[in-house]
Amino acid sequence: MFLKTGELKKMMKAALKSGGLYVGNINGGYLVHAGTWGLCTDILYASNKFKAALMELIGDIPESGEYYRYYHQNGEVTQDAETDYPNAYEMWKEAKDYAAYVPINLCSWPHAFIVLQVHSDLSYKVADKSLTADVISSKELETTVEGMPGRPNYNYGILYWKNDTTIYWVHTTEAGEKAREVLFPSMEKLDFFQTDWRLREDNEPDQEADFEEELPY
């Protein structure tokens, strides 16, 4: 898995204390998500470390076909059976746009955000750094069966990272006023899909970075 279990555990714990943590065993994958993020990972390649972290927070992992919402109530973890679960693969397939990382972090204490540029219209989006750059890592990869994901796909305010075993998604968030009105307008002539970041005129040759996009066509 290309996600740090320690950071995931923090995110899952926070979800239990707020809107709830949703966990399912669906179609051969562990589905785990909250309001602003989620993942689906192949059961065969889910690490013992990940499963142990999940069990520490919710108890027994759901059996095949089960899907629950877990939350804290009166100091105890409570679960409710649910039926309407997201289809991570179909969500990713519909995300035909993609995004490039911008070498900027926005800080608004106590939060920090990464900045990305969307390919279709070169608009800028921001996402919580604690859900993205702080979590996505090669440290826990099962390198015999998976590699790191490429650029994230993008659709309707959601970023998707996918490799051979896992799909991870994060909702973007609204940028602050200064970023919207000052910073991003000053960056309108930049194209972070180009090797030199310079926006091309219609008659100029493209110099897009040599990067193999994984698009769900």
Write structural notes for this entry.
It is a single chain. The protein has four helices and eleven strands, in the order H-E-E-E-H-E-E-H-E-E-E-E-E-E-H. By secondary structure, the protein is α+β, with helices and mostly antiparallel strands. Strand 2 and strand 3 form a beta hairpin. It is globular and about 55 Å long. The two termini are 24 Å apart.
Rg over C-alpha atoms, rounded to the nearest angstrom: 19 Å
- General shape: globular
Biggest sheet statistics: 11 strands, antiparallel
User: Structural class of the helix and strand makeup?
Assistant: alpha+beta
What separation lies between the terminal Cα atoms?
A: 24 Å
Record the strand order, biggest sheet.
5-4-1-2-3-11-10-9-6-7-8
